[in-house]
């Protein structure tokens, strides 16, 4: 463990030295030369995410939003959007807040949650249905991580196998991958976010990376994962060309809206009663048609 | 405006049921009045690629800017199998973390958080305390139930052992008693010559007590003919047949012929008829066919 610390300190010092540029003789000369030719710009990943929800959100959805805000330091949380019909306001809001990504949680009927992930100036937007939400507060999620630490983002191989998967991977990289220059970012890598496509749905998990001292003094430390939370499942519904508007470039054929599922269930239940009543009416009619004339030896005739 | 997430229809939505034509079996047929409606599935690969090219980050960007890793294996797990599914996710995370660690070392990025680095964590200390308490409680419950179960099992076993021991003791006592009694009965005649058989008596007692008596030639060994219960009762029951043979009962006083002379005649008269107890052929055949 001591050796690890030493290497980290050395690395940190090296990184500092590069950035601050302690002026030594050689470097001053180098700087003069650089100023003559246009210095190649250091490419930076600049991302900011606007996080907001619609009205009608439940406590579980609200906690999920707060969890995401705690995990990603480059996120700006905004107040609730008043109307669900004027989604064109969202790119403007994002512009106001200097954000180039948006995560919009749309709650419908107080029970369904939809997530819009969009790149705001002109970029694509992905609408997804969120299910199986477990927040960080659950006592079974025992891990903990630094607030604002940059996490590893891990994608499954299945993302690269389809065109919409590749686009989704790109958008998620921008949103969930914390840029190095984020203001509230902390130095060490503490946790890992995993996205997996299984059964045509995207499963999200967040694990804390723990490195224990090895049993042998000179071996590598043992890495274990503990779940920090939150966890949810996303079903992609449609991908639009513009930010919250535009033509559909992908629609998921297997998606059935939760409202349709509920109504189908209720209709099945109602069918039972209707079927029973129809059967009863039919039975009555059948008994009528099969009625025979009274027999000569019937009791009523003999003992009239 | 983004459209609703229902299926897109070419015609009007009517009250009739929407059935997928390719899912109809051969037996069913479609009514002729049905309006064919098409559910439009869109997968505009070209547009998707174009958009991705527009938004994607420059490939020259170093890994440290995004920290993205790809898991090289496909996960094929049954979605409903919770344990294996979570295990697959865990494996993905583990592999990716190890890969990221090596990449971080390459790019000189500090990876492991030192144990003395204190900063705000995502979950508060109070919350972690609750989690810890819950884990402790769970562990304690499990331990307690384990202990109770062991106790219960131990009690049953201990009771069993106790019963067995008691029975064993009783049995050995009885055994000893019987052997000594047998010996006493056999040695009834010892009163005749009290001196000569002292050694023999000791040997006999030792023999009786020991579990394995010395090998002696015996008439009918333990594997000989077993006398049935009834015969034994008659022979030894109530002191044997001779015990009551000279008693004065009502029947014996009333009968004047009770004597050896009378007995001989009764015996002779009986034996002539005694062998005819077996039913005749006809009755035997009838009984056989019936059964």
UniProtKB/TrEMBL annotation, chain A:
GO molecular function annotation: rRNA binding
Chief location of this protein within or outside the cell: nucleus
Ranges where the Brix domain occurs: 47-245
Compositional bias ranges of the Basic and acidic residues kind: 15-27, 267-294
Superkingdom, taxonomy of origin: Eukaryota
Location(s), subcellular: Nucleus, Nucleolus
Any Gene Ontology biological process: ribosomal large subunit assembly
GO cellular component, one term: nucleolus
Record bears the keyword Nucleus: yes
Short name of any one Pfam family annotated for the protein: Brix
Region annotation Disordered: where it falls in the sequence: 1-31, 267-304
Keywords for the protein's UniProt record, in alphabetical order: Nucleus, Ribosome biogenesis
Keyword presence, Nucleus: yes
PANTHER family tied to this protein: RIBOSOME BIOGENESIS PROTEIN BRIX, RIBOSOME BIOGENESIS PROTEIN BRX1 HOMOLOG
Family assignment from sequence similarity: Belongs to the BRX1 family.
Name of the molecule in the record: Ribosome biogenesis protein BRX1
Organism encoding this protein: Rhodofomes roseus
Automatic annotation (TrEMBL), chain B:
Nucleus in keyword set: yes
Species of origin: Rhodofomes roseus
Pfam families: Ebp2 (PF05890)
Family to which the UniProt record says this protein belongs: Belongs to the EBP2 family.
Composition bias type Basic and acidic residues, residue spans: 142-156, 165-181
Protein name as catalogued: Eukaryotic rRNA processing
Keywords linked to the UniProt accession: Coiled coil, Nucleus, Ribosome biogenesis
Nucleus recorded as keyword: yes
Basic residues composition bias: residue spans: 264-291
Sequence ranges of Acidic residues compositional bias: 195-205
Subcellular localization, as worded in the UniProt entry: Nucleus, Nucleolus
Region (Disordered): 142-291
